[in-house]
Amino acid sequence: MAVLSVSRRTVTRSVRALGVVSATAALALGAAGNAAACNINEFSAEAKCDGDKGVITVTDVDPAGVPATVTVFLQNNGADIEKIGEQVVRGSKEGTTITFEEDWKPNAEYRIHVTAKPFVDEDIKPNLITPSTPCKEDEESPSPEPTPSEETSAPAEESEEPTPAPSESESESAAPPADTSDNAPSPAGESNLAETGANSNTGLIAGVAAALVALGGGAVFFGMRRRGANSQR
């Protein structure tokens, strides 16, 4: 009887010990399973270009495939100013990606929140900053070059059309013959008249000639008087 009682106690203790060990293992496995079920580190976000438009993608690599709600907010100075969109994603070992159509601006900031209760309820850190280069460059159309007619003609309201300048060959052919009047001999009279008129000493010569004429006349007058006086004697 005593031996049977001891054996029952031993078995009971062993069963209790095994139950404690099993419960502990189950709790550990449950905690590990919950930790592996969904984690914020399994989510990543990226700003990309889809042609000329921008998009924001979020990838979930949760192998358990726990449904998670992803919400994207546009931020400015640390505050949400616009809700871009919200989608549900089921992760996979290879990764499941969802896309938000958002024509983002360079260096814009977005906050991305993930909710997968009871595992995750937080933001992807750090916030998403878009690239400094836009998906589509602003191309300034160059101004059209003026046509030759526009360059040479002016509006009718302002002025008349300018007469086109003659070409070099036309100017040479239309040039008048060289003036040879200076080299051609002129008649004697015209030459004397030209020289007399052109001489700057004409007035002086005329004055001297008049003085000489006056002196000659006086000499003749006095000579005639003397000759008359001598004849009377």
UniProtKB/TrEMBL annotation:
Residues 166-182 have a biased composition (Low complexity). This is LAETG motif-containing sortase-dependent surface protein. Residues 123-198 are annotated as: Disordered. Residues 1-37 form the signal peptide. The chain crosses the membrane at residues 204-224. Keywords: Membrane, Signal, Transmembrane, Transmembrane helix. It comes from Streptomyces prasinosporus. It comes from the Bacteria.
